[in-house]
Amino acid sequence: MMENKKKPNPIDIHVGSRIRLRRTMLGMSQEKLGESLGITFQQIQKYEKGTNRVGASRLQNISSILNVPVSFFFEDAPGEAADNQTGFAEASSSNYVVDFLSSSEGLQLNRAFVKIGDPKVRRKLVDLVKALAAEAELE
User: Fold this and answer.
1) Of the candidates 110, 133, 132, 137, the residue with the CA atom closest to the CA atom of residue 122
2) Which positions fall inside the HTH cro/C1-type domain (predicted)?
3) How far is CA 116 from CA 53, 123, 125, in A?
4) Domains with residue ranges and CATH for the chain
5) In the chain, at which end, N or C, are there fewer CB atoms within 10 A of the end residue's CB?
6) 3-class DSSP state for residue 72?
7) What gap in Å lies between CA 127 and CA 40, rounded to an integer?
8) How many CB atoms lie within 10 A of CB 73?
9) Taking a C-beta distance cutoff of 8 angstroms, is the pair 47, 19 a contact?
10) In which element (H, E) is residue 12 found?
């Protein structure tokens, strides 16, 4: 059982997790994304885990299908100059968003919220959630 135990590159893992994040935000299955690219859902799984590296042209196609700029997949990537460009508060707040959207409740809330067309209703909903959070802090 001599498997290749090479660890995936941290950037490949990050890009894969951002692909998964955006795909799930849109409520798109791995099968649907794979179909749009002419590849299997297993290949999408490997991209999302970072076990297979996403080539430049493929990443361009994915960004088009998921309707985000290619740079989206590199936001908050580990290492290099990214650490110097954002303050600690910004970095931790963007991680909070990723954690929220990676949760089942966060995804459900996000999908339902974007379907609300009336900006006044959306504003009232945000106010309600803030009020509930403030109450929870008092307990």
Assistant:
1) 110
2) 19-73
3) 37, 10, 10
4) 10-87 (1.10.260.40), 103-139 (no CATH)
5) N
6) helix
7) 43
8) 22
9) yes
10) helix 10-25
- Tell me which residue has tokens 């996000």: 110
Tokens of 2: 């001599």
Q: Which of 60, 126, 97 is nearest to 15 (CA)?
A: 60
pLDDT bucket at 135, cuts 50 / 70 / 90: confident
Tokens, residue 129: 């959630």
Q: pLDDT at residue 93 above 60? A: no
Sequence-ordered list of residues with C-beta below 8 angstroms from that of 98, at least 6 positions apart, any chain: 17, 21, 76
Structure confidence by residue, pLDDT tens digits, 34-64: 999 999 999 999 999 999 999 999 999 999 9
Specify the length of the chain in residues.
139
Residue type, 67: N
More confident position, 17 or 136: 17
Tokens of 118: 């009336």
- For the whole model, what pTM was predicted? 0.61
The whole-angstrom separation of Cα 98 and Cα 92 is: 10
